[in-house]
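Researcher: I'm preparing a figure for a lab meeting and need a structural model of a single chain. I don't have an experimental structure, so a prediction will have to do for now. The sequence is pasted below. Please return the structure as tokens so I can convert it later.
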Amino acid sequence: MGRRLAGVPDTEAIKARRTRAKAATPNMIAKFGQHLTLPGPEEISRIRFKLSQAGFYTVKSIPIFYAIRLLSLLLPQFVLLIYWSLFAHDVPTRTLVYWSTGLIAAGLFAPSLYLRHCINKRKMQARDGFPDMMDLLLACIEAGLGLDAALNNVSKELGKRFPVIQVNLDLLNLELMAGRTRAEAFKNFAERLGLEEASALNIMLKQSEEMGSSLGMALRTFSEEMRSKRMLRAEEKAMSLPAKMTVPLILFIFPTILLMLFLPAGARLSGVLG
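Model: Understood. Here is the structure written out token by token.
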């Protein structure tokens, strides 16, 4: 009391205020951080699944993805601001707002579009290599190997040619080694690949195991079906090629041919008339 009356600051009171301030700071940051944290577990699981389909399996892939989305929004605006401040003072404000809106839209959709492009690319690679995987799996089964050992051998053989299938087969083998049931492991394998053929393989293996039928005969029938589907896809692409060539033929080849035909006649006419 005497120190307060004499105007000398009370060190204990100062320490108490500092302690309360330090305790209040994390609470304020926590309240503010509720609006800045990552999405909920369901959204994170969905993004993790999409990233795994695109080939990004690391733990840091989700924070990196959200950081790229944030940078794709902020960095173009920063560049636009620098460009406007240095080189484009005379640009109308409305035009600047249009540019900023377009960059925001591009920044919002560009990461998702790139992720979808990676998923579709890997899906096409997996579809091309799936019949070869079935042929190798059938050869291993008929040679006397079990299904798990056959999957290991197929993963090693397809590694250089179809790395997409190799990675997913390695994950499948890890799930089987971790104790998951074969049906659940093959279901996850089919979902990661995103192919109807992989889902059909899962159903076929499950039915073969439940009914006790020969796995080799089932795989042989399924492998022949996969080869016929690949042949049908190749024939479909070959049949659609003339229709796809019509537009460049009309736009680029026909005008060139017409120019080559009529240019000499036009030169002669211009010489005669001149």
